[in-house]
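STRUCTURE REQUEST FORM
Protein name: Neutral ceramidase
Source organism: Trichoderma guizhouense
Requested output: structure tokens
Priority: standard
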Amino acid sequence: MADSSQGELEKLAPLPTSEKVKSPAPALEYPTMALLFTGRARSALSIFSIFALLSVVLFGAIATASPGGKLHKFQKLADADRQSYLIGVGKADITGPVVEIGFAGYANLDQTGSGLRQRLYSRAFIIADKNNPSDRFVYLVLDTQSGDTAMRNGLLDGLKALGSDYAVYGQNNIALTGTHSHSGPGAWFNYLLPQITSLGWSQQSYQAIVNGAVLSVQRAHESLQEGYLDVGTTDIPDGAINRSLWAYLNNPEEERAQYDAETDITMTLLRFQRASDGKNIGVLSWFPVHGTSLLGNNTHAAGDNKGVAAWLFESAMKNDATAADGFVAGFSQANVGDTTPNVLGAWCDDGSGQQCSLENSTCADGKSQSCHGRGPEFQALDLGAKSCYEMGRRQFAGAQTIYDNLKSSTTSVSGSTVKAFHFFQDMRYFNFTLPDGTKAQTCPAALGFSFAAGTSDWPGAFDFVQGDSGAPNNPFWSLVGGLLKAPGPQQVACQQPKPVLLDVGEISTPYAWTPNIVDIQVLRVGQLVIIVSPSEATTMAGRRWKAAVAKEAATFLDEDPVVVLGGPANSYSHYCATPEEYDIQRYEGASTLFGRNELNAYINLTVSNLHYLQPGSTGTPSQGVLPPDNRKNMISFITDVVQDNAPLGKSFGNVLVQPNLTYNIGDVVNVTFVGANPRNNLRQEQTFAAIEQQGSGGTWTQVRDDSDWFLVYTWRRTNFILGQSEVDITWETYGNAQPGTYRVKYYGDSKALFGGVSSFVGTSNSFTLK
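Status: completed
Returned output:
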């Protein structure tokens, strides 16, 4: 990977405060959004056409906070008094097929990969009790839409195959989280519903993630050594806004008054420092903001704003004397459900110049299609790329602030206890008791009408709107949903006041459409407690969940608990809204699968099992009934690569468009090559594109690869029958370039019709950047 020079890092430094884009004040009533399908908007026409066809064919921020939301003061300890642990970090490439595979997140059939803006990674963090190393956990942060059941099973299988040294890792102590990027290859989910817009399952896409996740854990395991953990916080007030403010305002006023903002603005960061020389080997942070800076029509794979933040931090640490080689920066998601990085609010792109309605994110025509959220650089008209960079930079700046403060004042995690528990819970008609003695029940998974409306991050289609009451306003869609599986009276009553559009939890043909059996998991090291959520908890849902856990944990911890929430993890289970938000039935409420009591059930299940985290605890809960493993049942309509051919008189890697002789910094360099399908070789731990710089002796050194945000790889077919294609490699030099003489390299692999795959390299003419 290319190193960044100090001069380049200065270009990546935080903007002056006066240049930052601030979040709109609540009084502006900026509209909000709702996501679609596996978490974002899709084309309703395409989706429901497929639904109809299938029916015929087949059938804090993180709370380092107490209930009041005030930050705890962390205990300051001298080095001699710091608690030591076994710590390890690891990072590996999980970039899958970046072309001809539908992306996961927006669930938009038109969002099929055409290239790569930034490689995707798995980052693994292991913490173990030094005196009892079997007490440990591994927390993974993947540049994916979420964690997933199939993915988690693959990781468990892969670690088992590594041998007895890895037998210490299992269901109980592995947390698999996604950054919630909406711009990565899909087709890897365990359940059918999110597979629909990717045309099914891709073994290649799935295996790329699993292989990288296993390798990241292996590297973290091999790096285990004695070290220290330190925690800090900072506020990032312009890091997100609430896209569903109307639903958030339905929470009790006295509860909302306890907090300073409509989203959690606090980032919490955990530093990993090895004891041998005091070098820092990594950081793991939590902050809630959706991975929707890149828009639903972006077709270049990337880790979105959290991928940018991780890249910036890791680049900065290459030139920081306090950091060890191979420093790993994980930017984990938190209570993300109703947050958006489109911090200028949602506006109607219909020429009216008006903001979308607060209540249902519609415009003057009463529909949502013209309602779009605006990132800080929305005027760039670049599919969200510059806004994405800026929102990632804000998280990087916040994390760097914490990191720099920890250099001068240690705020240690203390107490030797490292514990974890995990089990599966079937949410179909799960009965439990609320704290006030009231009986409550959850439901089989179902999605409401507002699920199909999307959000202003990327709206849905037709006449769906957030807050839609369903039939009779949408009788056609009621019919479509009914063709699949009409909910029975018990399900209808259980899901109230949600009008059920898709009774997905009661459809199992050809295999389960969504999870009903979900992961319940909590991790603990010292006073740090990590809730691992399978659902996208909204801001207030996360606050309540963390407060309840903090209250219970305080009964057995020596220090004030520091509680964070990470997810979406393990088995992606859509959303978790508060009961009051559920009643409004915007996107988040409609996508809360298990009914109005889902959040209360999650709180009940976690709090009632926190005793497993106590210092003297030696047991773990029974895993319960395992969720279905659908990996051998998958359906796919994704075709393989048949062949690649170069045009007559050309060879693979030949340059079709050479660069200019000279560019000024700030220009865009574009080179076009005779290409081949990148699905032939994913080049994990390698690169498709590179920039080489000429040294004083005439030698060429690689200084950029395709992990660099500003080096973009684009592939396109030019002749489908003959298998001909071209590749553009674009270097946006305004980002981090320095003067010099350069050339562009392209690394490809072609497939013969009756033969194997062959590698090739293309090299452009040199050019000068000044």
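Reviewer notes: The first strand starts at residue 84 and ends at 93. The chain is about 20% helix and 25% strand.
Form closed.
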